[in-house]
Design brief:
- The protein is of the alpha+beta class.
- It has helices at 2-15, 29-57, 65-90, 99-112, 114-129, 171-174, 201-214, 247-268; strands spanning 18-22, 25-28, 137-140, 143-150, 154-158, 164-168, 178-179, 187-195, 225-231, 236-244.
- The strands form three sheets. A five-stranded antiparallel sheet has the order 6-5-4-3-7.
- A hairpin with a 5-residue loop joins strand 5 (154-158) and strand 6.
Length: 293
């Protein structure tokens, strides 16, 4: 037991070594360890609180998943801020003595951390204004996918290839963003179709509408329509326009199904899909030739 007390006294003596003075008070190794331990516990508790609020407490209120995660994330930031202030106070650090340090950090932020701070502020704007939310189908900077997480620095977008792409939050504030589910799950798809000159366009129109009506992913209201777009060089250009509620996430699949069905119904009804062709006219003329000697 005496050996244990001796070891404890030596450890205490080491931990009481003053590293520097802060506000007229010594900053020891014990103070540093005290702060680090409490900060780790604080981040752990704040993370657990965020998950509990998003997945359990707020789930009972009927809020959508995006709103729940936004409120839970903001709550986590508030808890972290208040917790850090309390930890510093309990460690005996007078916050007024940190003014000079805060000024130096502010200068560093201004010069070296502009993008980090910009992304953090953009993340807060996204959470408050909610131009995008978890579950939305978005296109930004040539990246298309589903929003699965909105963090402090970046937003995680899951593509159809099952690849998670972390997009900086500032992209959603400074660039054009396509949100397929912003206020309505219905989207319209346009399927261009070309038929040969001489085709019965009214019959073609009926066949295209039959294809749209037979597809379960195409909704009846608004109804599908066919538009005669132009007289092309090699074809009469039409466009089948359909509405769907699943096109945002399965656009390529639905377009492919409609194209297959259109090709099959045109084949069975003798409707020709032309290929590019040109008429070549050769004008002949009599060329005078000098007789040979």
């Amino acid at each position: 037991m005496q050996a244990f007390y001796g070891w404890f006294e030596k450890a205490k003596a080491v931990l009481d070594i003053s590293l520097f003075e802060l506000g007229g008070r010594p900053f020891t190794l014990w103070t540093l360890a005290h702060i680090l331990i409490l900060v780790v516990v604080l981040f752990y508790v704040a993370g657990k609180l965020r998950n509990w609020m998003a997945n359990r407490a707020l789930a009972r209120t009927g809020m959508d998943v995006g709103a729940r995660h936004a409120v839970a994330t903001i709550t986590r930031y508030v808890v972290l801020l208040l917790g850090l202030l309390i930890i510093l106070q309990t460690a005996g650090i007078n916050l007024t003595t940190l003014n000079v340090l805060a000024g130096a950090v502010g200068i560093g932020v201004g010069f070296g951390l502009q993008n980090v701070v910009g992304n953090f502020i953009s993340g807060l704007i996204i959470m408050f204004e909610r131009p995008i939310k978890i579950g939305d189908r978005i296109v930004v900077d040539n990246i298309e996918g589903d929003v699965v997480e909105i963090g402090a620095r970046g937003t995680v977008v899951l593509t159809n290839d099952n690849i998670n792409i972390i997009v900086p939050n500032s992209k959603f504030i400074t660039e054009n963003v396509v949100n397929w589910k912003y206020n309505d799950a219905r989207v319209r798809l346009k399927i261009p179709v070309g038929v040969a000159y001489g085709s019965d366009l009214r019959r073609v129109e009926k066949l295209l509408l039959d294809v749209a009506g037979a597809e379960p992913d195409v909704i009846a209201d608004p109804a599908p329509v066919v538009r005669f777009m132009a007289f092309g060089d090699s074809a009469l250009n039409l466009e089948l326009r359909v509405w769907t509620t699943s096109g945002a996430t399965r656009k390529g699949r639905l377009v492919s199904k409609l194209n297959f069905a259109i090709y099959d119904i045109f084949q069975s009804n003798g409707i020709q899909i032309p290929f590019p062709q040109r008429d070549l006219h050769i004008r002949s003329s009599v060329v005078g030739m000098k007789p040979t000697e």
